[in-house]
Write a structure and sequence with these properties.
alpha/beta; nine-stranded mixed beta sheet; 9 helices
Amino acid sequence: MYLSDMHTHSIASGHGTICTVSDMAKAASRRGLKLLGITDHGPATLAAGTASYFRSLSYSPKKRFGIELLFGIELNILDANGHVDLNDELLEKLDYAIASMHAQNYKSGSVKENTSAYLNAMKHPCVKVLGHCDNPQFPVDYETLAVAAKEFGVIFEINEASLAPYGYRGDTRANNREILKYCTKYEIPIVLSSDSHGTGHIGDFTYAAEFVHEEMFPEELILNNNIPRLKMILSER
């Protein structure tokens, strides 16, 4: 059993759910989690959270239904220069940021261009997690990403929604295998993430956990149960 889920979405993400943050916390409590990350989509996602929404999160209660909450954002990477869709003033008020590519906001280029986009986004001190960079639509050089992640203190996620049968990213297993290979080589931690839009999959790592164990990835590099170390990494600037 894992005790934290750091990539989830509430109604503020603008699609796929009508669940509030309180709904999410209540579901996390029922499932035995201790730490929940709310990472709604950045403003470039259609109908997602506005700048005002992300500004207000710093005033929100950090514990609900016995669950500790961290408030972050899933940023959209916008171009090969690594520009993202929330300004520095607001990012600094959040607990952490995930940086991801979505087809609505980023036009996939060559392996070199896509890799550069992630590398440049990782330089931002608030970016702590690379989101579903297993997506075959955005091919990258995983060893180059791993070396940079080690330098900048960024971790990878293994995304349940990428590996589950209900996922829409295609066959991501080969790319996830590459991620785990280089995370092992460079001793880079990972988190298992549900990417749950609403309460339905909070804390559900069925396929992600099975995959990392099949690949014999070192348990000590999976941070979901090492909450003090996870929080330390997410808070470093």
